[in-house]
Design goal:
The complex is a heterodimer of chains A (426) and B (230).
Chain A: H1 3-13, H2 15-48, E1 55-59, H3 63-71, E2 81-82, H4 83-90, E3 98-110, E4 113-118, H5 121-124, E5 127-128, E6 132-133, E7 136-139, E8 149-152, H6 154-160, E9 167-172, E10 180-191, E11 201-205, H7 206-220, E12 244-245, E13 247-252, H8 259-269, E14 273-276, H9 278-332, H10 337-369, H11 371-378, H12 394-414, H13 418-423
Parallel strand pairs in A: 4-11, 8-10
Antiparallel strand pairs in A: 1-13, 1-14, 2-12, 3-4, 3-9, 3-13, 5-6, 7-10, 8-11, 9-10
Helix pairs in contact in A: 1-10, 2-9, 2-10, 3-9, 9-10, 9-12, 10-12
Chain B: E1 2-12, E2 18-29, E3 34-38, H1 45-53, E4 60-65, E5 68-69, H2 75-85, E6 86-89, H3 101-113, H4 118-127, H5 143-154, E7 161-165, H6 173-190, E8 193-198, H7 201-204, E9 209-212, H8 213-216
Parallel strand pairs in B: 3-8, 3-9, 6-7, 7-8
Antiparallel strand pairs in B: 1-2, 1-4, 4-5
Helix pairs in contact in B: 2-3, 3-4, 3-5, 4-5, 5-6
The chains are: A alpha+beta (426), B alpha/beta (230).
């Protein structure tokens, strides 16, 4: 019979108190798990957006704003860059190092979802989350020659309930309440979920994006009105030939390595544009915005677990007065002081581990129960058994906590006066 | 086999005064011998057993079991010695409530050797007539059955010495003789020396050797020196 079994029998004997202690510990651990998983989800959600290209080239201004606007479709555009500068990337002085450059234009929305003007290469050649190719759940990619075709991200399609073949009209500006353009776009494809901000956007042919102004100016002759709903410095040209874009998503040739920084430095020396490495900006943004919050939440969760650990100590310590006789009997049977001390420590560890197991189950169960909501909000799919690597420290952490809180009652057992306790009637 | 020499044990009372409990010039028990110690309540019978078992330390004197003086042993060694060589039957059985009859016996083995001999534990419980109650917990056993489990537990590690502290005091008359017979027989079968403490003349009459604590313990009020001391 192992000492673990002796400790387990003691837990069984005080079933109700032990169960309540385990539940209390379980809730603490569940909180830690939820914080860790949510952090992981937010981290993935944040970082996935900028994977797939090396640089974002946009107007001079805040680099965070450029990334927020271009990657996450948040905030306002910094401004526009001349199309001529974009051509420097594709056919000009940077062409030898640029593998792919995809223009994006902002300034419209549909039912709150950003309408992004771009080119078919956005989904034909650009990758996402590293090396994944975009796939269409329905329909197909828009064609360069069809100016008023568009495709929808998975979440945008689900929310707007637009189907392939249906039409929609973009609204001026990036928020609801702008003026609706008369020119309609036809949905030709719906993207499969990517788990990136692309899911929550509407993409149209860049030429059509600009043509809607041009078409309206021809019919109404009130060109000046068209800028009323614009925000920031984003402007649209009302001509067949595009003169400005909001930004470019750029893939740099990987060999020889280090070219990304060389190109970025060269672009940043120009007067008209800046180049940022999205991965770095996202990492900085994440650390400054979410990182500190995560530590605060984690600190609170750990504190809750420690309080639950103290609950274990109180539970065992309170039972010591009833158990002195039992400990004395064990000592009389030949158990050493160290042995009875170990039994109490093991009891504490067992309670903590059971609480930990319950907490893992509760935490992941709660996350799993909310997984469809999380997937919709962040595009990140969370499974029941999707563990964060940092959760691995939970088990040794709990054992250390249990050993620490079990020490006091264990010492009480260690110091039990056998002779006196045996004379006392149990 | 058991030899006590100039054994003194005192207790300090709450008011600071010292209460002499044991003052035994000499006491011997031979290997395999069965004897009974008789004395009225409070004369130090249980304290003497605790000192012999190494549960309580004497102020001075020797407690030799075979060639070992347990008063000279470090506590951990004394614990191991007790587990290996001394069996103890308590007046109140002192079975561990959370464990079955079989586990109570196995636990004693675990503390002695670090491992349990299930076959011997089953044999002992069978010997005390409890083969059908092995998986029962103390609360499910009768008083007589509890004490029989306690006897089996005390013999689990093949001790050389069995100390029994009023083993029939809490047992009804019907089971009293049964328990005594069991202790007698099992000690004889296993060649275990027995020191049984009682205040019952009825129990004492059944043993070939009866020592009165009043005759060996100088701390007892009314201490009477034995004839051979005169």
């Amino acid at each position: 019979m192992s000492l673990w079994k002796v400790a387990w029998r003691s837990i069984q004997q005080r079933f109700l108190v032990s169960a309540l202690t385990v539940v209390s510990m379980g809730l603490g651990v569940a909180l830690v798990v939820v914080v860790l998983v949510v952090y992981g989800v937010v981290y993935q959600s944040f970082h996935r957006g900028g994977e797939g290209y090396d640089l974002i080239v946009g107007a001079k201004g805040g680099r965070e704003q450029l990334v927020l606007n271009t990657v996450f479709y948040l905030s306002q555009p910094v401004g526009n860059i001349p199309y001529d500068f974009f051509e420097e990337l594709t056919i000009g002085k940077f062409a030898s190092t640029v593998e792919l450059a995809v223009p994006v234009c902002m300034g419209h929305n549909y039912q709150g979802f950003r309408v992004v003007g771009t080119v078919p290469e956005m989904f034909g050649e650009l990758k996402y989350r590293g090396d994944k190719s975009y796939e269409f759940a329905q329909g197909e990619n828009f064609k360069a020659e069809n100016h008023f075709d568009g495709v929808l991200g998975a979440t945008a399609a689900a929310r707007t309930k637009l189907l392939v073949g249906e039409t929609f009209q973009a609204v001026h500006g990036s928020g609801i309440g702008g003026r609706t353009h008369k020119q309609s776009f036809t949905v030709v494809g719906i993207l499969a979920p990517t788990g990136t901000p692309v899911d929550r956007a509407v993409f149209v042919n860049m030429y059509g994006f600009h043509d809607i102004h041009h078409a309206e100016s021809l019919t109404s002759g009130e060109e000046s009105e068209h800028h009323d709903g614009h925000e920031g410095d984003a402007h649209h040209e009302h001509f067949d030939q595009i003169k400005e874009i909001t930004a470019a998503l750029v893939c740099i040739q990987q060999y020889p390595p280090g070219r990304t920084d060389v190109v970025a430095r060269a672009i940043n020396k120009s007067q008209v544009a800046q180049a940022v490495v999205p991965a770095r900006v996202i990492a900085d943004l994440f650390e400054s915005v979410v990182g500190k919050l995560q530590w605060i939440l984690l600190g609170m969760a750990v504190l809750t677990t420690v309080v639950a650990g103290i609950g274990i100590m109180v539970s065992i310590y309170n039972s010591m007065s009833d158990r002195r006789h039992e400990i004395a009997v064990m000592r009389a049977l030949g158990a050493s002081r160290t042995t009875v001390m170990l039994i109490i420590m093991m009891e504490s560890i067992l309670l903590a581990l059971m609480g930990g197991a319950l907490g893992l189950l509760l935490g992941h169960g709660a996350i799993w129960a909310c997984s469809s909501l999380i997937a919709e909000w962040t595009g990140v799919a969370v499974g029941l058994l999707q563990f964060q690597r940092v959760e691995l420290i939970l088990i040794p952490g709990l054992i250390a906590l249990a050993a620490a809180v079990g020490y006091l009652p264990a010492m009480a057992a260690y110091r039990t006066d056998v002779s006196k306790s045996l004379i006392t009637t149990p | 086999m058991l030899f006590l020499k100039d054994l003194v044990k005192t207790f300090t009372q709450p008011d600071g005064s010292v209460l002499p409990v044991l003052d035994i010039p000499e006491f011997r028990v031979a290997a395999g011998e069965q004897m009974v110690l008789v004395g009225r309540s409070g004369c130090g019978k249980t304290t003497l057993l605790h000192v012999i078992a190494g549960i309580g330390r004497p102020d001075s004197g020797k407690v030799r079991i075979d060639d070992w003086d347990i008063t000279l042993m470090p506590e951990a060694e004394c614990d191991r010695f007790r587990a290996d060589r001394i069996g103890y039957v308590f007046q109140t059985f002192n079975l561990l409530a959370g464990f079955t009859a079989l586990e109570n016996v196995l636990l004693s083995m675990r503390f002695a050797r670090g491992r349990a001999d299930k076959a011997r534990a089953r044999h002992l419980l069978d010997r005390v007539g409890l083969s059908h109650r092995m998986t029962h917990r103390p609360a499910q056993l009768s008083v007589g059955e509890k004490q029989r489990v306690a006897v089996a537990r005390a013999l689990a590690n093949k001790p050389q010495l069995l100390l029994a502290d009023e083993p029939t005091a809490n047992v009804d008359a019907g089971h009293q003789q049964q328990i005594l017979d069991l202790i007698h027989e099992t000690c004889r079968e296993e060649n275990v020396a027995l020191v049984l403490v009682t205040h019952s003349d009825e129990v004492a009459e059944q043993f070939p050797r009866v020592d009165h604590l009043e005759e060996i313990n100088r701390s007892v009020v009314g201490y009477v020196q034995k004839d051979e001391d005169n």
